[in-house]
Amino acid sequence: MASIVDIAKDGIYINVHAQPGARRPAVRGIHGPAIKIAVREAAQDGRANAAILAILSKNLGVAKADIELTAGMASRRKRVYVHGEPASLL
Predict the structure, then answer these.
(1) Buried b (16+ CB within 10 A) or exposed e, 29-63
(2) Tens digits of per-residue pLDDT, 22-66?
(3) What is the CATH number of the domain that holds 76?
(4) Is the pLDDT confidence value at 1 over 70?
(5) How far apart are the C-alpha atoms of 40 and 14, rounded to whole Å?
């Protein structure tokens, strides 16, 4: 079974299920092996991706520069890498 969070040497990977075009931006819970994140922005020109990274940055308490989208740029299923000490991010 796939996990929602994978620990790396200098950070963590988070699987995300995106819901663009939502009425209210929010972390909506678990969707299979991913965290479901709803954003108002449409899935055009990377706007929804940027909004997802901003929500994760705020909720994890890390700088936006420490979060990067590593897979799923044009998909609802995304993989995000968060730089930092894994124990402090969990």
Answers:
(1) eebeebbbbbbebebeeeebbebbbebbbeebebe
(2) 999 999 999 999 999 999 999 999 999 999 999 999 999 999 999
(3) 3.30.1200.10
(4) no
(5) 21
65: helix, coil or strand?
helix
Sequence-distant (6+) residues with CB within 8 A of 21 are 39, 40, 41, 42, 43, 48
Number of domains in the chain: 1
Q: pTM for the whole thing?
A: 0.93
What is the domain extent for residue 49? 5-89
